[in-house]
């Protein structure tokens, strides 16, 4: 398989068009002001990806662009229509599960949707769609990544606290599944009802200091508290406030993530530097996921030496596709649900403490398939 | 105190110059901001010297009089007297210099600027920038043909080996290789160019004449996950018969037959092995092991690892002084 020698200047530059569609749901401010969403969330990752693609494109006679579209849940469908009317073949979405599914069905065979935010296992399972690629990791991958680490740490007894929102319930399901898969035991489960309050008010921490110990009182003996809190309602208040002195993981404490601004290994330092120079802030998961989605398109264009959307789609979904994402190994797509295989970082606030899969979890085809739904378990039927 | 001991030691070494005499081995410690100097004969540490922020690429002039260190976070190349380890001057390098290669004549120096998608060419005599060559994303690997006419740069995110004319500073060919190309090395005859791909897990053997990939070498080690096999540094013996490839977190150096390009052996070294350097007589090959903070010493004739030497924090590059 000899690669061709490429001339420096191709005769004619061909364009690859994409769009990033971010659907913003009105939210209360997060518990920590450090977590407030920047205006360019996701878009900054897109800009870096387009810069990267264009630099390579210079040698290939290829040019890349990504429109940046912001929508609300009410305007998302109309914005999607506009993009489809322009014939944009690749649409990166930053939306919740339900909205992602609706947008995918709206796009049909007119565009390939690259999901850079929604984490629900249903989207990769019974609600999977052939025209969707998931650059964001699933709940199951995140939960399995944490479970492997906790089992290595020999902390098999878990106290699971889930929020009351549907995404929290779905994430809690992923932790139950991970416990069964890796031999952990959920010894106690509680639901933290979102009744409002306790967020960023002057009295918030005062209230919480009283609330959290009481809430976690008289739990069965456990090694670790796992929080499933997709909306940032309570998890950040758990560390140091639990009744029993136990570490917290999941949505606070040791958090499984697709990316963290603390990662330095595998060339990540350079990636962080380039991002921070461009965006003037540390990178967020949505930026990384958008970056990798657009890099997949760029990589497909480089390898196929084509800008034909159909050729790029076919190549991305073929077994020959791989992309490098600063995680120490190539990232590839699962053919059974179009999920991007990827290592999951386990990050505290300041450091990347570990990266899963953990070494001792082996797999017959790829260690990355120890994370999330493997081929025999998938409910996806294209 | 440290420095004067070092001078004394090296003076003694020079005084008793024997066949296969000691050469200084310089190891850059990326996280330690220093260079550890070893003695290639006694295989002992001579000393450790500060060299600036985040030292990575390291090389030495053909006459052995100037030691060059990429101080990545200082955006400079720092130049040291290899005997005293005192800084003599700096060279402009462009931002974030990672790895570089000297023209066989000792001038100029070709530097990969990892954050800026450039190769900077610097005159080592006048200390002036001669050219900035735009290349792919995250340039890292730098190689130069033995006749000095062709400079190779590999770009880690673009995944190409760029062939640069060393006189016109123009790119005249680009070869697409597997993911994350880290290093480019010619054999001394100039008939083969080896380019390692860290994430792709392969070494591409390129015919420099035609710029075509003639072979892709892949690696398989029983008991090591394929994902952990990440080729980085490449060194070729002077006669071209053996090629050594550092395999990163596989903690092995692969030995390849330079004729057939087939893997012959794997040598167990320290953790996360990246860069390597021969002694001038090719008796030893030193490897930098970034996660175990040590250097492994390979006996080249016996293909055995004979010693490991603790160095500084996260050893990155290594160079051995010429005779």
Automatic annotation (TrEMBL), chain A:
Q: Which residues form a coiled coil?
A: none
Q: Which domain of life is it from?
A: Bacteria
Q: Which UniProt keywords apply?
A: Amino-acid transport, Signal, Transport
Do you know which Gene3D superfamilies this protein is assigned to?
Answer: 3.40.50.2300
Q: Which residues form the signal peptide?
A: none
UniProt domain Leucine-binding protein: residue ranges: 44-348
Q: Does the keyword Phosphoprotein apply?
A: no
What processes does the entry annotate via GO biological process terms?
A: amino acid transport
InterPro entries recorded: ABC_transptr_sub-bd_PQQ, BCAA_transport, Leu-bd, Peripla_BP_I
Q: Which PANTHER family does the annotation name?
A: LEUCINE-SPECIFIC-BINDING PROTEIN, PERIPLASMIC BINDING PROTEIN OF ABC TRANSPORTER FOR NATURAL AMINO ACIDS
Which NCBIfam families does the annotation name?
Answer: PQQ_ABC_bind (TIGR03863)
Concerning its family, UniProt says: Belongs to the leucine-binding protein family.
Q: What is this protein called?
A: Amino acid/amide ABC transporter substrate-binding protein, HAAT family
**Which lineage is the organism of this entry classified under, starting from the top rank?**
Bacteria, Pseudomonadati, Pseudomonadota, Alphaproteobacteria, Rhodobacterales
Automatic annotation (TrEMBL), chain B:
Q: Which residues form a coiled coil?
A: none
Pfam families assigned to the protein according to its UniProt record, in alphabetical order: Lactonase
Instruction: Respond yes or no to whether keyword Signal is given for this record.
Output: yes
Transmembrane domains' residue ranges: none
Endpoints of the signal sequence: 1-22
Which UniProt keywords are present, listed alphabetically? Signal
InterPro entries found in the cross-reference section? Host-pathogen_enzymatic-act, Lactonase_7-beta_prop, N2O_reductase_N, PQQ_b_propeller, WD40/YVTN_repeat-like_dom_sf, YVTN_b-propeller_repeat
Q: Name the Gene3D superfamilies on file.
A: YVTN repeat-like/Quinoprotein amine dehydrogenase
Q: What is this protein called?
A: PQQ-dependent catabolism-associated beta-propeller protein
């Amino acid at each position: 398989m000899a690669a061709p020698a490429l001339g420096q200047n191709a005769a004619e530059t061909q364009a690859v068009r994409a769009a990033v569609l971010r659907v913003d749901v009105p939210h209360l401010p997060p518990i920590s002001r450090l977590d407030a969403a920047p205006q360019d969330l996701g878009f900054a990752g897109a800009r870096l990806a387009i810069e990267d693609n264009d630099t390579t494109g210079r040698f290939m006679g290829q040019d890349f662009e990504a429109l940046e579209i912001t929508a609300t849940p009410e305007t998302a469908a109309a914005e999607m229509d506009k993009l489809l009317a322009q014939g944009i073949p690749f649409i990166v979405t930053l939306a919740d599960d339900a909205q992602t599914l609706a947008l995918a069905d709206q796009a049909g065979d007119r565009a390939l949707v690259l999901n850079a935010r929604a984490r629900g296992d249903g989207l990769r399972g019974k609600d999977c769609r052939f025209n969707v690629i998931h650059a964001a990791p699933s709940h199951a991958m995140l939960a399995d990544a944490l479970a492997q680490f906790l089992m290595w740490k020999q902390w098999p007894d878990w106290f699971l606290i889930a929020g009351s929102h549907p995404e929290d319930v779905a994430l809690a399901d992923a932790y139950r599944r991970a416990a069964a898969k890796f031999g952990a035991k959920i010894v106690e489960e509680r639901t933290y009802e979102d009744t409002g309050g306790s967020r960023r008010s002057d009295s918030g921490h005062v209230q919480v200091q009283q609330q959290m110990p009481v809430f976690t009182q008289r739990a069965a003996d456990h090694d670790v508290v796992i929080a499933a809190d997709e909306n940032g309602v309570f998890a950040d208040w758990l560390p140091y406030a639990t009744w029993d002195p136990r570490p917290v993981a999941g949505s606070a404490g040791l958090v499984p993530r697709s990316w963290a601004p603390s990662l330095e290994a595998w060339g990540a330092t350079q990636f962080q530097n380039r991002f921070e120079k461009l965006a003037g802030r540390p990178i967020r998961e949505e930026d990384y996921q958008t970056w990798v989605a657009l890099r997949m398109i760029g990589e497909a264009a480089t390898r196929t030496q084509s800008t034909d959307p159909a050729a790029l789609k076919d190549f991305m979904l073929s077994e020959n596709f791989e992309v490098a994402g600063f995680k120490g190994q190539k990232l590839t797509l699962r053919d059974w649900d179009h999920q991007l295989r990827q290592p999951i970082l386990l990050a505290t606030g300041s450091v990347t403490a570990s990266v899963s899969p953990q070494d001792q979890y082996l797999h017959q085809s790829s260690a990355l398939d120890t994370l999330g739904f493997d081929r025999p378990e998938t409910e996806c039927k294209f | 105190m440290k420095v004067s001991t070092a001078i004394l030691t090296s003076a003694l070494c020079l005084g008793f110059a024997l066949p296969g005499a000691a050469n200084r081995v310089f190891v850059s410690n990326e996280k330690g901001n220093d260079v550890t100097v070893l003695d290639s004969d006694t295989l002992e540490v001579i000393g450790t010297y500060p060299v600036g922020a985040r030292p990575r690429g390291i090389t030495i002039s053909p006459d052995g009089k100037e030691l060059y260190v990429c101080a990545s976070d200082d955006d400079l190349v720092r130049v040291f007297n290899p005997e005293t380890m005192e800084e003599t001057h700096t060279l402009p390098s462009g931002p974030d210099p990672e790895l570089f290669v000297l023209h066989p004549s000792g001038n100029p120096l070709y530097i990969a600027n990892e954050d800026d998608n450039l190769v900077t060419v610097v005159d080592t005599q006048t200390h002036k920038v001669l050219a900035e060559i735009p290349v792919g994303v995250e340039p890292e690997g730098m190689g130069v043909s033995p006749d000095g006419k062709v400079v190779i740069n590999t770009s880690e995110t673009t995944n190409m080996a760029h062939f640069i004319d060393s006189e016109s500073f123009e790119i005249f060919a680009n070869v697409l290789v597997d993911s994350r190309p880290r290093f480019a090395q010619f054999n001394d005859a100039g008939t083969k160019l080896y380019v390692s791909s860290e994430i792709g897990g392969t070494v591409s053997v390129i015919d420099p004449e035609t710029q075509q990939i003639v072979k892709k070498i892949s690696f398989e080690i029983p008991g090591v996950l394929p994902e952990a096999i990440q080729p980085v540094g490449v060194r070729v013996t002077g006669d071209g018969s053996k090629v050594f490839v550092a395999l990163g977190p596989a903690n092995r150096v692969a030995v390849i037959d330079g004729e057939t390009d087939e893997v012959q052996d794997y040598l167990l070294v320290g953790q996360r092995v990246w860069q390597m350097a021969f002694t001038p007589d090719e008796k030893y090959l030193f490897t930098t092991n970034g996660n175990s903070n040590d250097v492994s010493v390979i006996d080249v004739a016996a293909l055995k690892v004979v010693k490991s030497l603790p160095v500084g924090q996260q050893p990155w590059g290594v160079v051995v002084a010429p005779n």
